[in-house]
Structures are given as structure tokens and as C-alpha cells.
Amino acid sequence: MTAKTKAATPGGPETFGFQAEVSKLLDIVAHSLYSEKQIFLRELISNGSDACDRLRYAALTQPDLVADDPEFRISLSADKKAGTLTVSDNGIGMNREDLVDALGTIARSGTTAFLESLSAAAKAGGKTGGKPDLALIGQFGVGFYSAFMVAEQVEVLSRKAGEAEAWLWASDGKGEFTVAPAERPGRGTSVVLYLAKAEREFLEPERLRHVVKTYSDHIAIPIVLADGGKEETLNQASALWTRRKAEITPEQYAEFYRHVGHGFDEPWLTLHWKAEGKLEYTSLLYVPSHKPFDLFHPDRRHGVKLYVKRVFITDDCEELVPRWLRFLRGVVDSEDLPLNISREMLQHNPILGRIRSGLVKRVLGELKKKAEKAPEDYAQFWDNFGAVLKEGLYEEAEPREDLLALARFRSTRGQAGDDEGLITLDDYVGRMKPGQEHIYYITGEDAEALRSSPQIEGFKARGVEVLTLSDSVDEFWLPAVAKYKDKSFKSVTRAGTDLSGIEAEGEEGKPGKKAKEKTAPPPAEIETLIALLKLSLKDAVSDVRVSERLTDSAVCLVAGDSGLDMNLERLLKQHGQIDAVSARILELNPGHPLIAKLAKLAGEEGAADRLEDAAHLLLDQARILEGEPLPEPAAFARRMARVMEGGLAAGE
Description:
Low-confidence stretches: 1-8, 107-111, 127-141, 415-419, 507-515
CATH class of the largest domain: Alpha Beta
Structural class: alpha+beta
Number of domains: 3
Helix content: 25-40%
């Protein structure tokens, strides 16, 4: 294809509008990556490499697809007079539907949220004179669209392998693109960039050599530069993972990571090894330094490509890497799997199962070394991917012991002036108080809010550490694991927590247990108050009882012993899996001045009517402390107004 290639039919091209998200992405990419423009070539070469890999695999069962052109290659050619740079490959190619789908839409959920965060980063970069985080952009995968950083117009001429008709896609990246029938002598894709005048440096052979050597030397397909009638191969054209580790520089490892992960960040961890013996395979795996924006999307899969004897097989093999390691990027190349293996055969192949087991063991082992030798770096990894690793605790039993050793937690210990960083379960067990039988935890959406929850007051008063767990997955792995070193996990938001066996610690300005008992009203008054509160609240609560856990707050809500944990119920309700949360238990702090006054009032004549508003306000107060919405805000406001009015009248 030349720069002047036109549609082959006289009817003219079809015109399409970009999907809204694509238009936004193009605008941000074109105007925000001004200092990283050379990466467009890396991205286009990577796309060409992927296209060749996919055709090589398809040809295993359809050899006719490559019979006329068996040698794969990527070609670069510059036309200084026309101001065009062409990147061509003889890979699998695209037909009309492929061009419209691949280059006009972004079919991944979560794109809108990603673009909103990217737009905010671009605006912030404009105000400060900087630019948005390239790693954030790389999480999405700029890919083909990076061409518009340097080009005023882009044309894509493509012919799908096995098909006779070619198609021409064209756009200026400003809102629309056209697709028309065209002519191309062979299969594959040619991307023609009409470079802006300020970007004509990418027409110079020396500039192209430098970019390819820097960013694409690892590509396993020859990258050929056509210059003045001569052809020059610019890269080593050998699979990076097949080379000896001593021959690979850190820069080459990093660029291959960006190739397989389509990212801009540096790899946090690089793992390159060859397994030999009864089973032979080579792995080059990476852990990213940034968390992908769609890490928890249901359609998210790992980024590990499966090769067999250097032939690409698939990048969608769930049997190769467990979902709880889906942040991994890289390649696995097997010597033992058959080249013509099908997707159905992969699902039940024992060799793949053994490779998977070996990968998991090696990755967890390397993470353990990192945690021991560089705990601060490991803390960064855990903040990014800890929630994903914890999925493995309930999905698989075999690696559970290793995963528990790798797990890190935040706790209430930091509020006492101690280390506020991450702790291990061994740290927790080693600090358990005499008489403490359980590993206590509290779950919720906000770790800082959990630290101030009324449910943990009694634990803090006794110096009992409580794990503050704010990942949704925590609600699911805890029941599956149940215990750690014979110490069972127990939620502090459940009823039936007995702290009497743990001695209270008197703190300055705070009464210990005995001091609290002196200020509490007589048991008879408390029992009367409880009876009246039950009468007023009816089915709004499942029970009202005296609390062992409260020291500062007047009330709190807890779940029953046999029901679901409160945070789990909230999560299930948010996702529509249950219609409503169950009634809670309202616990009272008898040592609190408010409860003491209400208990005294409960013994007076007409107390039931006078306590009606107070009962509902106490319940609403407990709901607010839990971060739950009030079922009747208007009724809460009316009751609050009446109580305030009565208080003001009594003071006159």
C-alpha cells in the first residue's frame, strides 16, 4: 500500500463515528503524551507481532493460510516526499467487521471510569506543567491509538488471511472514521501514518533504528527497514525468554514487559527460569508496579501467553494461571505440549496442570523472598494486589498455608502509638493477650472508619488487637480458612463476644472495668430500660442487651451468633443478592451517662411514652455509627426536634 491508496469501489467509503470513549481516549493520548511520542512505533510493532503470532497458530490446523508466504515479518518504510511512515506485517489481517470492532470501539466494561480518572490526571498535569501518569494510561493499553500522537491522518489497509477482499480504514482521529473496500496483494495489515510536520523525525532511518533497538529488539519476528532499495533487519528476532539470563539487560527485560503487558510502568518483579527434567518449560513472568484499573472486573483475565516450542498458542488459558494471580504478565513456553493442542484439550491436560502448579509454587516462593528481604517494597505490592491474592485463600486449599504467610493486615495497634504499618498473622498471634482465645477482626469499606467503630472500644480498653479488614474478599476467605495456628477468627461485630477473661487496662482519663461498674445504674433499672426499648422498637431490632464491648459510645449494633456478618449483609444487599438486611441486636453501654439517665427514667410513671423517641434515636445513632442509611430520615428529624425542644424547655 502507498500513502495514496484509495477505496477500490466507486460507491465511496462508509462513514462511522467513534464510540464516545474512543474519542475521549484519542484526545487525551494525542495531547498528553507529548514527551513519549516514540512509543507509537513500539505499539504498532507489537500489534504486528501479535498478528503474526495468531496466524502462526491458526496455520497449525489450516496450513493453506500461509502457504504462499510462510516467512513472517514486520516492515517499516518511510516516504519523505509524502510525509508518511508505513508499518506493515503479514500476519492474520482484518476484514471489515474486525476493523470496525477493533479500531472503532472499546468493548471493555469500566472504560468510562478509567477515562474519567485519566481526564482528571491530564487536567492536573496541565495545571502543574506536568503530564498524566503514563502507567495509568498503560493500564488501558493505548495500542493502535498512540499513532495519533504523531499523525494527522492514519490509514489501515488490511486483508484477512484466507479471504480475497481487502479493506481500507481511515481517520483523522477527531470523531469519525471510514471503511471501504480496497486492494492489497497479500494478507496482513499496513498502517500508514501521515505525520505532522513537527514529527517528521520519524522518517529518518537512524531515528527508526534507534527506536526499534530501544523498544522492540526482543520481538521474535524480523523487523525490516526498507531504505533506498535496501532492506535491513533491525532486531535480533529471537524470543527473549529463550536467551540466557546473563545475555539480557534490565532494559531489555523492561521493554519485553511493556510488550506483553502493553504498559508504561516498570515491572515490580521479574521472574525468568527454565524448568528441566520430566517436564520442560520456560517462564518469563512479571508483576506490575501499578494496579490495573480493571483488576476486579469479572471479565479480567491474566496476561500470560502460552507458547509451545516458540509458537504462540493462546493468551486466554484459565488453566495456566489461577484467577488470583491474574495480575501476572509474561509468557510460558512448553516443550511437552503438542503444537496442535485445542482449547478443549487445554482444559483437561495433565501437563498444563503440572505447569500451573509449578508456576504457582515459584511465584509464591519469590514473593516470600521479597517480603523477607524488602518488606517496604512488598508493602507496595500488597497494597496493589493483596486483595487479589486473598481470593486464593478461599478458591484453593493447596496454597493456603503459603498465602497466609504472605498475607499482610492493618490493625488497631497503630492507634496506640505503635507501628501503623502492615502486620503478619504471626505478628498478631505473638501479641495476643493472656486469656485471649481468638483472632479478632472487623470488616467494612473504610479502614480508617473501622478504627473508630464502637464495636472495638472494649477490645482497645483491654489492649486486644483487632484486624481492620476493608477488602470485600475478606468476608469470604475468613469462613473458608476459619483458623490460623489453632486460633480461630472471630468478628467483633457478632454477639456473644466474651471479654471477661481478658483483664482490662486502665488508661489515663478512662475508667477501668471496676470504675465503670461503680458508675453503672442498678441492674433492675437497666432491665426495665431494656424491656421498654424492646417494646418501643419491636421488630426493628432482634434483641436489646447490655454490652461487654462498649466503653465510650452509648450504643452499637451487632449481628447474631448464627446470622451473617453485618458487613457481608450490606455487600449482598448492594449487589442485589438479598432484599434487606436482618434485624440487629442493639447493645447498651450501662456505664454511659445517657444510658444511666434513661435507665433512671425508665422506673418513673409514664416512662414508656417518654422513652419512645429516645428508643428510636438510640437505634438511629447506632445505625449512623455503622455508616448505614437511616430508613426514615424525616422521622429521625422530627424525633430529634422534639427531644431538643424538651431539653431546652427543661433548662428554662
